[in-house]
Amino acid sequence: MESLEEKLGGLSVARRSRPEEPTYLLHVALQPSGLLAASCSSFTLHLHDRDTLSPLGEYRGHGAPLCGLTFAHASAHLLYSSSADGTVRAWDARRPGTDAVQMFRSDASHSFCSFDLNCSDTLLCAGTEQVDDEDSFLVFWDARKAGGGLLGVYSESHSDDITQVCFHPRDKDRLASGSTDGLVNIFDLSRGGEEDALLLTCNSDSSAGSVCWSGPGYTQLLCLSHDEGLQLWDLGQLDTDEPLTVFSSSDARSLTPLAGGRSLDYLVGGQWLEEAQKLVVVGGTNSGDLHLMECDNRGLGLLRSLEGGHAATVRCFLWDGAGQALVTGGEDAQLLLWKPGRKQLTSEKTEPMKSESALKLQSRPHKKHRYHREKKGGKND
Fold first, then answer.
1. Sign of torsion over alpha carbons 340, 342, 345, 348
2. Widest pairwise Cα distance in the chain
3. Nearest to residue 372, comparing CAs of 89, 81, 110?
4. How far is Cα 318 from Cα 223, in angstroms, rounded to an integer?
5. Which of 2.130.10.10, 3.30.450.20, 3.30.230.70, 1.10.20.140 is the CATH number of 4-377?
6. Is the pLDDT of residue 359 over 50?
7. Has this prediction a pTM greater than 0.85?
8. List of residues 6+ apart from 292 with CB closer than 8 A
9. CB of 317 closer than 8 Å to CB of 338
10. What is the pLDDT of residues 295-304, one digit of tens each?
11. Is the CB of residue 187 less than 8 Å from the CB of residue 180?
């Protein structure tokens, strides 16, 4: 069987796609039956063919920056997105260009900066920005109820923007949340109220940017901070006296020296590859080069560097295990499909397409909503 290193070693750009309008690509999501979705800084969602990246249509409706998207697991034709406009919306992937088929709202003061759908497609959760310089909320809905069945909120666990909510891939009641207050919380929602549901609070020692379930059985949690720190915790040690921390670094960019004495400029995110049983972290340079690294108890180890693809910062990625391909999107408005053994389409990078709306976005996720904040309150950060 071909190893992960061998698969990654043969990667090259097989397909390129870019929208007609200049925009940043912020998130990508994969539907197992053949669709790929991307969210853009123009507040739109684009559908693509999974294998060719051919554009299949788009959705419009959100009025502020998007903070994530995901396909439903069982009802794969449903695509969910969330935005700083205070809505989570469900779209019919079979009907590009149509209005949302469901809309979920909470309090009018809530501006969302993260969201996720649990593995049973029954529960939606969105994290809010800080409200009135005091509170931030985890908002829950029953995803099966037409009109948006608001279930309630958790209000005590975070004190600043909730930049990430991430349901466990196999346990519908297990939820991780991260915030710019530096805390990463683990909840068991089957226990009911917030105080009872909170199992563990970990301190990321910085503003938490993204969290990712990983490890065999998804018993570990990766946290990447906005200042490029890295924390890997083993939650399987919750009921033991063993330390939870598997590996920790305040600046993970220095862990992987690159050719020519260079170093990483930023970390994009992480993904647990079930087939290979490896946690892969993706980092990059501002020129658009990508670097794929394995993360374990020893830190980060370089697996493969990808050059000649993007021309600016990469914002999102996913590994398509079924298609044996890597999908990346960035600030150059390009969506790239990398496959092993494919001839490089071109050795020349495409110049970035930067728009006025795109330039309003900051480089880190918790600053994506400057547009919304200035429009509402007119104050500067």
1. positive
2. 57
3. 110
4. 17
5. 2.130.10.10
6. no
7. yes
8. 8, 280, 281, 282, 302, 303, 304, 305, 306, 326
9. no
10. 999 999 999 9
11. no
